[in-house]
Amino acid sequence: MSEATQSGSIDHVLHERRLFHPKPEFTQKAVISTVEQYQELYAAARDTPDAFWRDQANEHLHWFEPFDEVCRWEPPHANWFVGGKTNACYNAVDSHVQAGRGDKLAIIWEGEPGDTRTLTYRELQTEVAKCAEGLVELGIQQGDVVSIYMPMTPELAIAMLACARIGAVHSVIFAGFSAESIADRNNDASAKMVITSDGLNRRGNVLPLKATVDEALAKSPTVQTCLVLRRTGGDDTPMTAGRDVWWHDVIDKQPGDLAAKPLDSETPLFILYTSGSTGKPKGILHTTAGYNLWAKRTFQWVFDHREDDVYWCTADCGWITGHSYIVYGPLSAGATCVMYEGAPNHPAEDRFWELVEKYKVTILYTAPTAVRAFIKWGDHHVDKHDLSSLRLLGSVGEGINPEAWMWYHEKIGGGRCPIVDTWWQTETGGIMMSPLPGITPTKPGSCTKPLPGVVPMIVDELGNDVDTEHGGKLCIAQPWPGMLRGIWGDEQRFVEQYWTDVPGNYLTGDNARCDRDGYYWIMGRIDDVINVSGHRLSTIEVESALVSHPDVCEAAVVGRPDDLKGQAIAAFVTTTGRECNDELLKELKLHVRKQIGALAQPDDIRFTAALPKTRSGKIMRRLLRDVAAGRELAGDTSTLEDLASLAKLQEES
Ligand code: PRX
User: Fold this and answer.
1) Main-chain phi, psi angles of 353, to 5 degrees
2) CB 599 within 8 A of CB 535
3) Residue nearest (by alpha carbon) to ligand 1 atom 23
4) How far apart are CA 93 and CA 72, in angstroms?
5) Ligand 1 residue neighbourhood (C-beta within 6 Å)
6) For residues 544 and 402, is the Cβ–Cβ distance under 8 A?
7) Quick one: DSSP state of residue 43?
8) Given CB 3.0 to 4.6 Å as the disulfide criterion, which of 192, 272, 314, 427 pairs with 484?
9) What whole-number percentage of the chain has pLDDT above 70?
10) How confident is the model at residue 532 (pLDDT cuts 50, 70, 90)?
């Protein structure tokens, strides 16, 4: 075990030694196929960023008017591709039609009930133009904010792209949020319109989306129009005269020939609200050219995209992953994307594998929380299907525990597919660190190395660089095109949250460590560190040790106050089915002790049926800290998926 020799650096206790090399068959055809190629790109982006990004932008985006300055960096404000005019919708849709690839499939969509629809790039162009024309008819102009609260239908992507086409700013709100959350977001952004649907299919039930929106609109004075897609049918959708209009009445009749508007590079593209650890959600702002370029290039590098790939990202467009890796990245790269509306376990727990087999998916991008659910549901669901079309797997959203990584690799990837564990954030716009699947040997649990243009830095409490193998705060030392441009309407919070702690550098809010091979290991959020007897431990290492026990499915670890040690370690554990008794409890404590040492042995272990998670699947350790300490729950719970799991834990306290 390493000693904490630096000011507040974090001890690293989990030792993962497995290494998986890319297979030569994969490397031969890869977009980046030699280490030297990566090193050259990396050095060029770091040492001569202006020249590097000038070439990238000229080659990979369409310019109605050329830019005359690559990056104007006045910390913490960056302007990229100053003076140029482009359009993210044009780059994602029209450019392919223009290049003679209009007949290629852009979207293969499947609804939860099993209905399907495909759209070629040409068809998508017409649909997007019609929607844009409808928005204009309804009074939407450049700069207006449009909230989108919709199920995962093609119209969700179409609505986003239609906003981009005319320079309106979309704010997608995940369709699981409450009326209160919608109203907060509408008001914070002064949204002028909400686009929604009558209902949403979820595990065979219909959720009345429009009714929720109505409740929100009663408290959203800036919203003038509500555009409603008929998705689930039924006659009982409440429509308010003068405010609400049906999609089929307004959009379907449009000619579909409105061209994409040339927009300044820094035109706001979207706002996406993300929860802070406390307080009200932040509207993260991304703008047009830099974001678009970052989403496209990172997609091509990380997913090794080839012309005949069938790519499926299982995220929802309500999250940044859906923005960057369902819509703007893959479509700008001309990919064929599978889009699925529903739950992974409807009608049965093999739905994802059925879809992979049916559409011959070659690249699958999903989240650790889903992988852990698949493990819990059992291998027999996977075994029913032919997954041999898969060639590459991706993971995003949280650290993937090494044992879940191994299962994903072996059971889903058949041992042949590289895994790209992609580290990034809503704020970064796109992937920042990830293996490049043709060249990077992977270590389970590590997001490996930074992409070209990403210059990471790890510092201790005083802002000094920490040594190799020591954990500290992860910062980014150079501006990159996809970086957030601000928090909507809150300059002060933007500066304080990201740019004050380590001046001039972007503070990610995550802890990380870099190992001797230059591989990065994300150690969780800065707030999640536990301090046991003066040793600062990262939660994810203790969690990964617990998950490596065959009877543990998921684990969340938090600190609770302890008179003697400063903090004691409290673990919350879900099992794969074994009886939760004292014997298992003792076994788990010993298991952690054996895996990483006595210091990391949990003081309390509590079994639970489910862990409280955000709606995007992240474990909410902040709330578990309150439960572990026997405190009243504090802060914002609006992003919590399953309040019941938390209430139950509290009752048992
Ligand atoms: O803590 C990191 C974790 O998720 C945070 C970003 O969350 P969000 O803005 O919702 O974006 C999620 C989709 C990119 C990060 O600060 N995180 C995300 N990916 C990983 C991760 N932690 C470890 N490994 C990852 N691959």
Assistant:
1) -75, -30
2) yes
3) 399
4) 29
5) 274, 320-321, 396-399, 421-426, 447, 508-510, 522, 525, 616
6) yes
7) H
8) 427
9) 96
10) confident
Could you tell me the two tokens for 451?
Answer: 């992409």
Name the DSSP class of 60: H
Res. 278: pLDDT tops 60: no
**Does residue 76 have a cis bond before it (omega within 30 degrees)?**
yes
Neighbours of 43 (CB within 10 A): 12
Q: Which residue's alpha carbon is at the smallest distance from atom 14 of ligand 1?
A: 425
In single-letter form, the type of residue at position 605 comes to I
- The residue ranges of every structural domain in the chain are 528-652
Whose C-alpha lies nearest to ligand 1, atom 21? 398
Query: What does 275-293 look like in DSSP terms, one character per residue?
Result: --SSSSPEEEEEEHHHHHH
Nearest atom within ligand 1 for CA of residue 447: 26
Model confidence at 236, pLDDT cuts 50, 70, 90, reads confident
User: Is 423 flagged in the annotation as binding?
Assistant: yes
Binding site annotation covers 201? no
User: 528-652 has which fold?
Assistant: GMP Synthetase; Chain A, domain 3 (3.30.300)
Rounded distance, CA 38 to CA 144, Å?
40
Q: Which atom of ligand 1 is nearest to the CA of 509?
A: 16
pLDDT tens digit sequence for 72-121: 999 999 999 999 999 999 999 999 999 999 999 999 999 999 999 999 99
Q: Pick from 172, 179, 178, 168: which is nearest to 149 by CA?
A: 172
Residue 78 CA to ligand 1 center (angstroms) comes to 23
